[in-house]
Design brief:
alpha/beta; about 45% helix
Length: about 425
């Protein structure tokens, strides 16, 4: 269980030996899980090393972008910002965030039959009114705060991943100290754009298609960045981070694939269950493969130095440089993902007396209907922006980070002195 108050530490001068990147995945309402992980790191790991942990580069997608932008906006409070973020999630009221909008739904229906509603500039077509989540995000990010923290050196860079609606490409909006534009990937599906990061970028990144309308930025429309890049590790690397904390609310069941398939029944699955599984598949990100590749690279460099001596890395990098390639360097990663099935937790929550007391009417009945479709409610877990459920996820995140306490302390301890 997370504490009710953040621990304060006296200011401590420190020298950064590397840049730490905090990578926060997408997952809509599941993003509350990330808050528990981050709060544990900011409070308990800081206490263990005797000083605030350095977070130099923030990289977020979808709900991760909301968490990232809030952490960046309150960088002047390096420890307490975890508490502020946890409170923001705990204060959520489902009916404020997930509010069916007749105007948006009518606009959506009209567009589906090829008609563009007249005078509907503010009606882009979706199921829910976005004003509630927009108001919350804007209230968490004081105007100009991120730019000020970058100038003051409290932060090196921040990136927000979105999906460009017209092209389907991943567009990464980033802002770095001094306005430095890094060398970026030549991936044709990815575009990096320097920007002054504002709440609108996070709102766009979290705009799940059909659930919330796409957001216009500089005359173009953007939606959920998790559609193509759910775990934004690459932007953090490009922005100079060489050590990473990667947080992912996705639960992966560890069992024999054959046993898992054998559990299936012969009846056709409920359409709501299918929708949840489709959402999971859509947001699937092969981050485990990326991390394994980084670990393999680290092992190759270490083996080369053991076999050929300490100059192995420098020699290889010299040859790579002649061919126009970037240098290789060891990269540390601490990967934390959910240890509990959040879909199951969502189903249990909407069937609970707490939910029945908090959410009534049509929305409450609809949520319970989804929860009763099976023991898992994956679809529901993406839109369950309700305080008590968010607090449950925060607690799971706290516990998962605590389980990796020693690794986290070792990771940060060697990066400051």
């Amino acid at each position: 269980m997370s504490p009710t108050r953040a621990t304060s530490l006296p200011p401590t001068s420190q020298t950064h030996l590397s840049r730490v990147g905090l990578v926060l995945a997408g997952g809509s309402a599941r993003g509350a899980y990330e808050v528990g992980v981050v709060r544990y790191i900011l409070e308990e790991v800081s206490r263990a090393i005797g000083r605030p942990v350095p977070i130099d580069v923030l990289s977020g997608t979808s709900a991760g972008s909301i968490n990232a932008i809030m952490l960046a906006a309150h960088a002047e409070e390096p420890i307490r910002r975890g508490e502020l973020l946890a409170k923001a999630w705990a204060d959520l009221e489902l009916e404020d965030v997930v509010r069916p909008s007749p105007g948006e739904i009518l606009s959506l229906a009209a567009r589906m039959i090829g008609r563009s509603p007249r005078g509907a500039n503010s009606r882009r077509g979706a199921f829910f009114d976005p004003s509630g989540i927009q108001r919350i995000i804007r209230s968490l990010v004081p105007s100009g705060s991120i730019s000020a923290h970058l100038r003051a050196g409290r932060l090196s860079a921040i990136s927000i991943s979105t999906t460009h609606v017209a092209s389907g490409k991943t567009v990464i909006f980033f802002q770095s100290r001094g306005g430095v534009t890094p060398r970026w990937s030549h991936d044709p599906t990815m575009v990096a754009r320097p920007a002054t990061i504002t709440p609108e970028h996070a709102i766009a990144s979290a705009a799940v298609p059909l659930a919330f309308p796409a957001v216009e930025i500089d005359g173009e429309f953007y939606c959920d960045g998790g559609l193509r890049q759910n775990v934004p590790l690459s932007p953090a690397r490009r922005l100079g981070a060489d050590g990473f904390i990667v947080v992912n609310p996705r639960y992966i069941r560890e069992e024999d694939p054959g046993a898992y398939l054998a559990r299936g029944g012969g009846t056709y699955p409920d359409p709501l269950v299918l929708a949840g599984k489709a959402m999971n598949a859509l947001l699937l990100d092969r981050i485990e493969n990326d991390i394994r590749r980084l670990e393999k690279l680290n092992a190759i460099i270490a083996a080369g130095e053991r076999r050929y001596g300490p100059t192995f890395g420098a020699t290889i990098n010299e040859e790579l440089g002649r061919g126009g390639e970037g240098a290789l360097r060891p990269i540390d990663v601490v990967y934390i993902r959910a240890s509990a099935d959040i879909g199951v937790m969502a189903a249990d929550y909407v069937r609970s007396p707490t939910f029945a007391r908090r959410v009534r009417g049509l929305l409450g009945r609809a949520m319970r209907r989804i929860g009763e479709a099976g023991t898992e409610a994956d679809l529901l877990s993406y839109v369950l922006f309700d305080g008590p459920f968010a607090s449950m996820l925060v607690d799971i995140g706290w516990s998962d980070a605590k389980a990796q306490h020693d690794g986290l302390v070792a990771f940060f301890a060697k990066r400051v002195r």
